[in-house]
Amino acid sequence: MDKGYEKERFESLSIKRSVAKKFRSYCKSISKSQSITLLLMLEFFRDHGISPMDSLGPHLMASEVRILKRINAVIAIMRDMEKTQTKPTAAMILSLFEESAPNEKPLILEKKLTEEKPLKYREGQDEN
């Protein structure tokens, strides 16, 4: 039995046989009784302001536009947070690390030649 509707009487509706078969198979597929399935359908159409004869195109397009606007708003908020909070904080931390790092001198001193001496020709070397 349907919860909350146990004491109600049944009423008959006249519908075509082919429609009744399709409706019964749909009720079985969603595992609901015929009364509850019909009630859910009616509430769905009423709650969403949709008529079964309307095309869902305009309603879905309006929903999509609304969602895209919200996504753009979230992106703008994130960019603002990055600009006003993340980048300045990262810059301050970087400047602190740069100042605190000691100037390291090379441990091994390399002798630099000031002038290169020309090589003298030695006897016994092959010239190519």
Describe this structure as you would to a colleague.
The protein has 128 residues and is mainly alpha-helical. Among the domains are: 12-54; 56-98. It is 56% helix and 0% strand. The protein contains 3 helices and no strands. The protein has helices at residues 17-29, 34-48, 57-100. The longest helix has 44 residues, at 57-100. The protein is rod-shaped, with a radius of gyration of 41 Å. The N and C termini lie far apart (109 Å).
Name its key features:
single chain, 128 residues, mainly alpha, 3 helices, 56% helix
Helix/strand layout:
Layout: H1 17-29, H2 34-48, H3 57-100
Summarize the structure.
The chain is mostly helical. The protein has helices at 17-29, 34-48, 57-100.
